[in-house]
Structure formats: C-alpha cells, structure tokens
Design brief:
two-stranded antiparallel sheet
C-alpha cells in the first residue's frame, strides 16, 4: 500500500531558494501556493458571463445534466431534452449543479452528499412545475408563455417547434448564445475606443 505524500519534497525544493531567515508561516504559505488547490465553486450568474466563460459553462452543465438524468432515470417531466432553451430551467439546474460540486468536494464533510439529495428532492418538485408551465416536451419545444401586464405589448403567438435532433439543436443554441455575447463585447470595445479617441482629441 502506497503511503500518502507528506509534502516534504515540495518544502525542500522551495527551501533551497529561500532566505535562511524566512519565517515558518511564510514557508508554509509558499508550499501551499505551490500545491495549487482548486478553488471552491462560485455562483454562476448567466447574465454576466463572457462569451468564453458562457461556452465553458454550457458544456459543463450539459454534461452534468445528462449524467444526472441517466443516473436517476429522470423523465422528461423533470428534465426535458430542451431545458437549455428555458432560463427558468437553466437557473434551477445550474444552482443544483454547483450545489452538487460543493457537496462532493473532497474538503466537504461526510454529510454533504445527503444534504444535496435532500435539496435534490425539493428541486425535482420545482423542476416539474417549471416544465409544466413552460410547455416543453420530449420531441418539441416552444418559448415559455408570458403573462402580459396592463400597458405591455401582448406576446406574439407561439407554436410548438418539432426538433428531430437534440444534440444538433444544443450546439446551434450555444453557438448563437456565445456569438450574441461576443457581439456585445465587441460593441463595448468599439465604444470604449471611440470614447478614448474623443478624450485624446480634446484640447489639453
């Protein structure tokens, strides 16, 4: 049976390049920095993601959701194929995903997984409600119907769209979302450069 590394090798390697009078606490900080431990998960705000970050988050969430529905045999009434087309489902599943990552983190205590499953049971009920409200189905989808408030323009009529290949639709959806975010970033850079030129041209 292999013994777990005690980190002394890394400490010796660091120590070779250190001042002999360095404090032990400083040496510990340097050794821990070299270990490059992963950071705990942070909330994902889908409204603020850059184009590059959004693509990575879409792919990671899609892989996890697919694993989740297969592991627990979840029906389309809980996790429908086209969940990514509905923000209410994206936010719910994204939160559940981050909760799962934190609960199964090696630094987490042993009660993390059972706490996640407790919250998972509640999340499934919310997902059923979201799915029933938005009207997405196993082989077709439509935008979630919106309630028109007084003074607002009524929502245009919506119809179900038959989607024969879910994988292709997901790729197209993500590509469009990433491009839309990239367009916003490009426009922001263009406006900033324009403002900088105006400022530079102003008399001293």
């Amino acid at each position: 049976m292999h013994e777990a590394p005690d980190g002394s090798g890394a400490e010796d390697e660091v120590g070779e390049h250190l001042d002999p009078e360095i404090e032990d606490d400083d040496l510990y900080d340097l050794v821990m920095a070299r270990a490059a431990l992963p950071e705990p998960p942070r909330p994902v705000n889908w409204n603020l993601l850059t184009s590059g970050d959004a693509e990575a988050e879409w792919l990671a969430l899609n892989e996890w959701v697919d694993q989740l529905r297969r592991t627990y045999g979840l029906p389309a009434s809980v996790i429908p194929p086209f969940w990514y087309r509905h923000p209410e489902l994206v936010w719910e599943l994204s939160a559940l995903h981050l909760h799962w990552i934190a609960s199964y983190d090696p630094e987490q205590d042993a009660s993390g997984p059972i706490a996640w499953h407790t919250d998972f049971a509640l999340a499934r009920e919310r997902l059923r409600e979201w799915v029933a409200t938005c009207g997405t189905r196993l082989d077709r989808d439509r935008p979630t119907r919106q309630t028109t408030w007084p003074g607002e323009e009524p929502q245009t009529p919506i119809e179900d769209e038959l989607i024969p290949n879910r994988a292709i639709d997901f790729v197209d959806f993500v590509a469009a979302d990433v491009q839309a975010r990239q367009d916003i970033e490009d426009e922001f850079i263009r406006l900033k450069r324009s403002a900088d030129r105006v400022r530079d041209d102003e008399p001293g």
